[in-house]
Design goal:
The complex is a heterodimer of chains A (277) and B (261). With 277 residues, chain A is mainly α. Chain A contains twelve helices and two strands; from the N terminus they run H-H-E-E-H-H-H-H-H-H-H-H-H-H. In chain A, strand 1 and strand 2 form a beta hairpin.
Chain lengths: 277, 261
């Protein structure tokens, strides 16, 4: 009698779905590693330009702007490149195609909420991105000489915060994309959203360089928790209290984002049949 | 002369084509206004922390920004649409239809498309330059304006050459759509005077990606920084680049395998 081998235990339910989708994403994206790399290299231009501008401002002001030194700017914009990559999620511009071409129909008959497919797929992709990012970060560090002062606590919080940022941005852009259920003239709205995000998230510049009223505004908006906060966890100089308050705000925005996705989806999807085929 | 009128005809047909989609004018305008507004905010933020950047004052940098927006309009309306069409034609083999026509192929692939509405940025850029010059309140001589126009033309030619050389690589590697992203990323660097970049980047932005000739040099002409020698250098560089582009184009064309490939 031959021994019957125990089948490998698999995760069931939602965690099982995530595991499968993330593995698929890794395999698919590894095939396109050249395209992925070209894309990432193109992305570097943006932070390098900001870095050069602010370094040159810092030098003209005797080495620092608002207490941020040239080396700290370098650290900020190098961590920026990783956080920016964590920030790439399903684009709101993709919703037009989903609705117009009826791609949503297939998603609707599945037994889980469609956002899980996006969340899992892009999360899997991140592992490929982080792998490809490491040599880029090393290269940038050699050229721009950042100054880092990272504690174990900060490193740990950073690992959580980049995924918090990923979740918040995923959900907010999902909500923004769902506006397409109501109208397809969305480009002006998206332009304004992304401009606000650019200025108030810490993507363009460390938030400390904004005027005081804008800093206050940034604190209560979600953008900061998807960009500036995770960067400053390891490239900035946050107190232990600020570290944890940031995490708390991220948790709050994850919750709010989930609620918004749930509500807008329920209302919006009713309009879908009108556009579908 | 015949070639000029051919180019003009293509331009007119392209414009007529675009006139069918008038709503796009407003979309372009909104985009342009949002982009310029953001850029002004950035400029304001930078100059809230310093009085000069690499030796340029805020109003002088406004001239650079105007030229940057203007040149961006030239690229998006005249250069990029043609190059994207060329990439697609190489990929799908439809370049055959161009090659069989009784006119120089390089000329044809360079004038087939024209994005009329994207040209909004040319107007917006000129306005910015004008506002900056009024604010600078420093009389600009006729000679300086002439030098500016010449430098702009040279810069546009340089950008065109750079794009065509990049696109010609499609003959070898076929899929080059990521080049558009790559170029757009690098073009952003032109917002600032190339002199602020560290040495190796500055050389790259001058000779590899000709941002210095496209933006900084024309802006220098209006802010009294351009010497006759530099302009002469720009002429020499452009002539050399045009010859190189011609050569690369010929080499690429030899590799083209046609629709049956």
């Amino acid at each position: 009698m031959t021994a019957v081998r125990e089948p490998r235990r698999r995760l069931r339910g939602l965690p099982g779905l995530y595991a499968v989708l993330m593995r698929t994403a890794v395999q698919v994206q590894l095939q396109y590693r050249t395209a992925n790399y070209a894309y990432m290299l193109g992305m570097i231009a943006e932070p390098v330009i900001y870095l050069v501008v602010w370094s040159s401002v810092a030098r003209s002001q005797g080495g620092a702007v608002e207490g941020i030194t040239v080396g700290e700017f370098a650290a900020y914009y190098i961590v920026w490149t990783l956080v920016r990559n964590m920030n790439i999620v399903f684009t709101p511009y993709g919703w037009e195609q989903r609705i117009r071409q009826g791609e949503l129909s297939g998603m609707l008959v599945r037994p889980v909420h469609p956002i899980h497919y996006d969340l899992a797929y892009f999360a899997g992709w991140k592992f490929v991105v982080i792998l490809l990012w490491l040599p880029i970060a090393a290269g940038l560090a050699l050229i721009f000489r950042p100054t880092f002062d990272v504690s174990v606590l900060e490193a740990g919080i950073f690992l959580i915060a980049i995924w918090g940022a990923y979740l918040i941005r995923s959900m907010l852009l999902w909500v923004l994309g769902m506006v397409t259920f109501w109208t397809t003239r969305v480009s002006a709205l998206y332009d304004m959203y992304f401009t606000a995000e650019l200025l108030l998230s810490g993507r363009l510049l460390p938030l400390a360089l904004l005027p005081a009223w804008a800093v206050t505004l940034a604190d209560v908006l979600p953008f900061k928790y998807t960009f500036g906060y995770p960067i400053e966890v390891i490239a900035g100089d946050l107190s232990t209290r600020e570290l944890f308050v940031g995490l708390g705000m991220q948790a709050l925005w994850v919750g709010l984002g989930a609620l918004l996705v749930a509500v807008v989806w329920r209302v919006g999807v009713r309009r879908y049949s009108a556009v579908g085929n | 002369m015949r070639r000029l009128s051919l180019g003009w005809t293509f331009l007119r047909v392209g414009a007529l084509n675009e006139l069918q989609y008038r709503v796009n004018f407003f979309l372009s305008l909104v985009q342009s206004v949002v982009a310029v507004g953001t850029a002004l905010v950035v400029l304001g933020l930078v100059f809230s922390h310093t009085d000069s950047l690499g030796g340029w004052s805020s109003d002088e940098l406004l001239v650079i920004m105007g030229v940057y927006v203007l040149m961006g309009g030239v690229i998006r309306s005249l250069v990029q649409p043609n190059m994207q069409q060329l990439m697609q034609d190489v990929q799908e083999g439809t370049l055959d239809y161009v090659l069989t026509k009784p006119e120089d192929a390089q000329l044809l692939v360079s004038v087939r498309r024209f994005g009329l509405w994207q040209a909004v940025d040319i107007v917006v850029g000129l306005l910015l330059v004008a506002v900056a010059l009024v604010r600078l309140d420093d009389p600009v001589s006729v000679l300086a304006v002439l030098a500016f126009v010449v430098a702009l033309l040279l810069g546009a030619l340089d950008i065109y050459c750079f794009w065509l050389i990049l696109t010609t690589s499609a003959f070898i590697v076929v899929r080059v759509d990521f080049l558009i992203e790559l170029f757009e990323g690098m073009y952003q660097a032109g917002r600032w005077p190339v002199t602020i970049y560290p040495g190796w980047l500055r050389i790259g932005f001058t000779f590899l990606v000709p941002l210095a000739f496209a933006v900084t040099v024309p802006a220098s002409a209006l802010t009294g920084r351009l010497s006759g020698w530099l302009l002469l250098g720009a002429v020499a560089f452009t002539v050399g680049l045009l010859a190189l582009t011609r050569w690369v184009w010929r080499q690429g064309l030899r590799r083209y395998a046609g629709a049956s490939a």
